[in-house]
Structures are given as C-alpha cells and as structure tokens.
Amino acid sequence: MSQKTIDQSRCTRCNRCIEICPLEIFEIDPLTSFPAVSRPKDKRCTACGHCAAICPQNAIDLQDDSLQGPPGREAEPALSPDQVAAYFVRRRSTRRFRPEPVEKGTLEKLLDIARYAPSGVNRQPVSWSIAYSPGAVGKLAALSVDWMRSQIPLKTPLSLGLRFDILLEAWEKGKDPLCRHAPHCIFAHAHKEDRMAVTDGTVALAQVELAAAAFGLGVCWAGYLNIATNSYQPLKAAAGIPDDNACLGVLMIGRPQYAFAGIPKRKAARVGWV
User: Fold this and answer.
1) pTM of the model
2) Which H helix or E strand runs over 23?
3) Which architecture does CATH list for 86-254?
4) Is residue 57 scored above 60 in pLDDT?
C-alpha cells in the first residue's frame, strides 16, 4: 500500500484517476469536490501507479520510497504501427555469438526495461541473476552436462524425450548445445511457492528479449539450462539462485556473430472469433 496524496493546487478535477484505478480506490470528496483516496479501500492498492501516470497535471504522488521510475514525465515515443510490426517480426533467436562481453551498464538497462513488464496484481516477483564473469557460462553448462550424464542411465522421461545422449555427444566434441558459447546468461527467478511467478517471469524475460535487439544484442532462450537449474542443486547454487526460489527461465545473450538478411516465413495465425 502506498500513501497517495493529491495536490489540489494542480488537480483540475478531470477525474481520470477515479476512472482508471482498477481497484476503485479513488472517490469524490463531497466537501471539496476533488478526487480523494478512500483510506479503507487504499489497503487494496497494488502500487500499479496508473493513477499518477494518467494525471495530466502530475498532481498525484504515490509517496513510496521502494518504487523507482524514470526521471520526470517522459513523452511517449511516436512509433507507428508499421514500425512496431517491423521491429517485432525481425526478432530472431541468436545461436552464434561473438566472444566479447557486453557492458554491464547495457545489461542493467535491459533489466530496467523489464521492471515495467506486467505482472499479476503488480507484485513484480521476479529477481535476476547474471552469469557475467569470464568462464561463468561455461561452468554452468558443464554442471548441466554433469546432471544430464547422471540421468541417462536412469532413462528418465526427460533424458529420453530431450535426447540427452545427443547433447552429450555434441559436448564431448567441444560444442556447447546448451548455452551456445554465449558470453552471458540471464536467469529470472522467484519464490518456488509463487504459482503466478512462472507467467510473470516469462513475460519479463520476453521483454528483455524484445528490447535486446535495440542494443545490438542477440538472445536465445536456454531451455535445457533452465530445466537443469531446477533439477540440480549445485547448478542452482552456482547460478546464484536462493534455495527457496525457482528458476523461471534463462536467456543466453551477447553480440550476434551474424546479422540476418531477411525474415523467415511463419504459419498463418490461427484465429477464432466469438
């Protein structure tokens, strides 16, 4: 809950805050005719910030020191639908990376963008761990291989369905089918009892992936590493994920070795209208 205040010297009584609040926390004060916060209802507040963001006069202050945002009220970028479509359809998974590291500041900017990804009831449960230092990703890939090697004799459904034997064969030849020799990996994690966190983490990771291209970076989802991290405690610890948390997803990230010249074809959208 945030202790919201409304600056009546700025407020024009447009009442947008009343209309936009999903939990109906605002109401008209009968004494002043200004919007006001219903203190009993304020306990429901998820600090989504839509009331402050919708106010054209910047009259609402959430007064929550735990929240951070961009300085000032930045204007929305004027992106046309065609520009957005062109950017999105050019997204490609990168599996060939250049070896040089990405600046920490660039990765921090990506995660700052991911802070604005939607989450259930605005809980923002996702935490991050980055395999950054030289050799860190290779160490994690090697631990994943150790776990996979232990599963093959057991003939577990995962080892058979995901063909761990083929992955290990490639590993023994000096290839890295798990992390593709990426310079870095980004892990999203949250408390393992949080049932909504998997969706929230997937959305946040997708936001990182989509934003990465604007920074000249390539990304690929590391599904094998994600499975191994949640199955093998030494790997989970090496990835910097607390015991009480579960890995929600992993992204390999770095500068792509090659640039794609075109856009591949995809199946037509399957849509039903009700």
Assistant:
1) 0.90
2) none
3) 3-Layer(aba) Sandwich (3.40)
4) yes
